[in-house]
Write a structure and sequence with these properties.
Length: 471
């Protein structure tokens, strides 16, 4: 990020525009939305600017530019191509932010596309690379934000002191404002129903001032790529007071959370001291009892080798409300990322998820059943136990040529794919130095090599049947 976004207070401060044509007019239209003291410097002015001068909405210096005219200014626009370099240098010498229109090299700031619902203002910037993209995004956001949103924000400002006196600081106050801006209170306000607005407002204040217990959301973060996070999961991250997260949460996902949320890392790493499950349960219970909304953020899905069921049971036993937000489990997400179908006609009629590790070491399974022809399965947490797993399967009679696909850091930019047979699984892992989270698929073939496994029979009269059905 080259340009840091911020909002500049122009109330009763001098803003200068050098130039009197169309480009100057566009910038002055924006500045007129503020309370800045606008000065335009140009020998001649556009007719619309002359009208603003007559209405005392801006001051006109009808002469050629000299650097001293920028004295005491806090913002400068150069809207005259012939003067860009001179104006830019004069502003820089005085430490004044300057924008030379359409010349980023001579500018120290750029003006974003703006959605104005005063006092709610949304700014969209593309760092000057794609103005059309910025305008397109602005159009979409314009359509999303009601015109009365600014009036709602003003009404909220009048309530702020009263709410601060009645509602304790923290998640309860935040919960009230969430309900105010995004719930039934807003709906009543937008509908212009003053009676309903007052009733909903008082009901919300009573609710948030009553003693309350916190709650826990068990949230699946998916296989790694932030774009595979569900909308509900993202909303939970925005609402959370506390986020208790695993080590395998993909980079960028925590960036979607509320910035002031407390973050507690409880990730487990093989062969290193890690939090016990009982410790994690105790953290969830402690934070919820303090009245907080806790998000237990897990890689993949909470119910697929995520111990979500254990945590849910512990919370219910303590009378703590709990809800579950599913996520894309690693076996599904990683397979889709590399184009590996989990079920295909003529190849397999079932697909099994299993873990390679348990608290006691190697997880025990019905190896004889898994070794039968036509079986397909994915192994979670199987890298360190891969030698034992392949040995068990080979002893149970699996064909040593059974295909294996290993996906490390699936769905991420550093995703890595390795293919081998069950007979060479351990050597493949050792030679490739797999140390990131990985999932192992056994008995599956990529789509490109299995399209001809089962041909689709077409009878001679099929086309005629289709035509009759269409007519």
């Amino acid at each position: 990020m080259r340009y840091f976004p911020l909002f500049l207070d122009l109330d009763n401060r001098k803003a200068v525009v050098v130039g009197g044509g169309e480009e100057a007019l566009r910038k002055i239209r924006l500045l007129l939305k503020t309370k800045a003291k606008i000065t335009v410097i140009a020998p001649t002015l556009h007719d619309e600017l002359l009208a603003h001068v007559k209405e005392d909405r801006l001051a006109w210096v009808s002469r050629s530019f000299v650097p001293s005219l920028l004295d005491e200014a806090v913002l400068v626009y150069s809207a005259n191509n012939d003067l860009h370099r001179e104006v830019s240098q004069a502003a820089r010498d005085r430490g004044i932010p300057v924008n030379a229109i359409d010349d980023a090299a001579l500018s120290t700031f750029i003006t974003p596309s703006i959605v104005d619902r005063d006092p709610v203002v949304v700014a969209i910037g593309t760092e000057g690379t794609s103005p059309v993209l910025g305008m397109g995004l602005r159009s979409k956001i314009e359509a999303l934000l009601p015109q009365a949103l600014g009036s709602l924000a003003i009404a909220a400002s009048h309530l702020r002191q009263s709410v601060a006196e009645r509602v304790p600081h923290g998640n309860r106050r935040r919960s009230f404002w969430q309900r105010y801006f995004f719930g039934s209170i807003r709906d009543s306000f937008m509908a212009g129903d003053a009676g309903s607005y007052t009733r909903e407002l008082e009901a919300a204040l009573i609710d948030v001032t009553s003693p309350s217990l916190g709650r826990v959301s068990l949230v699946g973060a998916g296989p790694g790529d932030p774009e595979l996070l569900t909308l509900k999961a993202q909303r939970k991250l925005q609402e959370a007071d506390v986020i208790v997260h695993d080590r395998l949460i993909g980079p960028g996902i925590l960036d979607l959370a509320r910035r002031d949320a407390i973050r507690i890392a409880v990730g487990k790493k093989p062969f290193e001291p890690s939090p016990r499950q009982s410790d994690i349960n105790a953290i969830l219970i402690r934070e919820a009892r303090a009245g907080r909304h806790v998000v237990r953020l897990k890689g993949g899905d909470p119910y697929v080798f995520g111990r979500g069921g254990e945590e849910q049971a512990a919370l219910i036993a303590e009378g703590i409300p709990v809800d579950v937000v599913p996520g894309i489990t690693a076996a599904l997400g990683c397979a889709s990322s590399i184009g590996l179908p989990l079920t295909q006609r003529g190849q397999n009629r079932a697909f099994t998820l299993l873990t390679g590790a348990s608290e006691d070491g190697l997880a025990q399974h019905d190896w004889a059943a898994l070794a039968k022809p036509g079986q397909a399965f994915a192994i979670y947490m199987g890298v360190n136990a891969a030698g034992d797993i392949s040995a068990q399967l080979l002893d149970a009679g699996i064909d040593h040529k059974t295909p294996v696909t290993i996906v490390e850091n699936g769905t991420l930019a550093n995703e890595r794919v390795m293919m081998c047979s069950i007979g060479s699984l351990w050597e493949t892992l050792a030679l490739n130095g797999v140390d990131g989270p990985a999932i192992i698929y056994v008995g599956l073939k990529p789509a490109m090599t299995s399209a001809d496994i089962l041909t689709f029979p077409v009878r001679d009269d099929t086309a005629a049947q289709i035509l009759r059905a269409a007519s």
